[in-house]
Write a structure and sequence with these properties.
The protein is of the alpha+beta class and about 400 residues long. It folds into two domains: about 200 residues, Cupin (Jelly Rolls); about 90 residues, Malonyl-Coenzyme A Acyl Carrier Protein, domain 2 (3-Layer(aba) Sandwich), CATH 3.40.366. The protein is built from eleven helices and 15 strands. Strands 1, 2, 3, 4, 5, 6, 7, 8 and 9 form a nine-stranded antiparallel sheet that branches. The chain has a three-stranded antiparallel sheet with strand order 14-10-15. A hairpin with a 2-residue loop joins β12 and β13. The chain is globular, with a radius of gyration of 25 Å.
């Protein structure tokens, strides 16, 4: 797929973030001018037949439920049974399935990688939609083929406003405040919790770049799993100075304060441990896309590979990040972490920024510090980066 240049209505990325990000919708006409999308509807349907592709078909059926959902993998006969209108095929994690689709995410990397989730694509038959709904995360909706009408409403909704559908959280009533018809190359940005409804006008395809917005209760659960490994967490409550009571049912405030103090102390963590937890948490993959190599690669194998001019490549599924902490770097890849020197920052930044790595910069980094060879070998043997066989 061609390299894409993002136009933000004449705004710089900083201006866009200041004026629109998590504040208000933004329609970007021809954000991707001259977009040439390489995937056909038939090819998309072919992907949905594969067992490891996360695919769904939504059909608008009316009545109490409004829409139904069927999960893949599908058979060719599933598509032949579909009507001529009012249905949509959705595939998530498209950039992991087809790495060339990373080109649609790349222009949005003025937003940190740890906030970017995935690229989803929808093919809709005429009048197809996924129903009026809200998302709890930011999204850029990119029209890549055909036309889709988008309607939005900025009011708040209560639980009583939703259809009684156990599989899909869709609004039972939706009144459009604004309506736009998007053509190929147009982009609609929506902040979280803006109700929207997209309807295909003729058959069309739309890509959405979605963003991670981790819930605090999920983060708290993950952090607690780490904190309870502390041996102190396994101690039991004790009260060696217990006093006789005349009220057996009474819980003393002094006991509550003692327990609260102990639990509060367990929840405290030093800055480095907290940073390491968050880096590992936020780079954990949603699905297991990575496969280790069939044979272990050792230092000699790596050096021969690089010295003959061969580079390395990163699967688009591998999530990388790093944190600067005092006089060290904490580097993260798919939930694993390494501690590196601050002088490695440029190298680590290059690893995070790129998906293909030429041999010479890797050799230069290894010659400067053998810790880099150790890091690369760890990542290669976990499948986080690979020998580039397509140079």
């Amino acid at each position: 797929m061609q390299k894409l240049e993002l136009q933000l209505n004449g705004l710089t990325p900083r201006q866009f973030l200041d004026e629109y990000w998590q504040k208000k919708p933004c329609l970007i006409r021809q954000g991707f001018a001259d977009l040439e999308f390489p995937l056909s509807p038939d090819e998309l349907a072919g992907l949905a037949l594969e067992p490891d592709v996360p695919a769904r078909i939504l059909r608008e059926v009316g009545g109490e439920l409004g829409w139904t959902v069927q999960h893949g993998p599908f058979e060719e006969s599933d598509f032949s049974k579909l009507p001529d209108s009012h249905w949509t095929l959705l595939i998530t994690d498209l950039e992991k399935i087809l790495p060339e689709m990373q080109a649609l995410i790349e222009p949005f990397r003025f937003i940190p990688d740890w906030r970017i989730d995935d690229l989803m694509i929808s093919y809709a038959a005429d009048q197809g939609s996924v129903g009026p709904h809200l998302d709890e995360y930011d999204v850029f909706l990119v029209q890549v083929q055909g036309q889709r009408e988008w309607q939005i409403n900025t009011r708040s909704y209560a639980e009583s406003d939703y259809l009684p559908n156990p599989d899909l959280k869709l609004l039972s009533r939706f009144d459009a405040e604004k309506t736009w018809l998007l053509e190929p190359g147009d982009i609609l940005y929506l902040p979280p919790n803006i109700a929207h409804h997209g309807i295909a006008r003729g058959e069309c395809m739309t890509c959405s770049v979605g963003f991670r917005a981790p819930a605090y209760d999920d983060m708290l659960g993950s952090l607690t799993e780490i904190l309870v490994r502390n041996p102190r967490a396994h101690r039991r409550y004790s009260d060696p100075h217990l006093k006789q009571t005349e009220h057996p049912g009474l819980i003393l405030n002094s006991d509550l304060m003692r327990i609260r103090k102990e639990l509060h102390a367990l929840l405290e963590t030093d800055n480095e441990s907290f940073a390491r937890w968050f880096g590992e948490y936020t780079t954990e993959p949603g699905l297991d896309w990575i496969e280790p190599p069939g044979e272990i690669i050792d230092n000699n194998d790596l050096m021969i590979w690089l010295q003959t001019g061969n580079g390395l490549t990163r699967p688009t599924a591998t999530r990388l990040a790093y944190i600067e902490h005092q006089h060290k770097l904490l580097f993260f890849a798919d939930g694993s972490s390494w501690t590196l020197k601050v002088l490695h920052k440029d190298f680590v930044d290059m690893l995070c920024r790129q998906y293909r790595y030429e041999a010479q910069p890797l050799l230069d980094a290894i010659q400067a510090d053998q810790d880099i060879a150790t890091l690369l070998l760890d990542m290669i043997n976990q499948g986080l980066i690979e020998l580039d066989l397509h140079q």
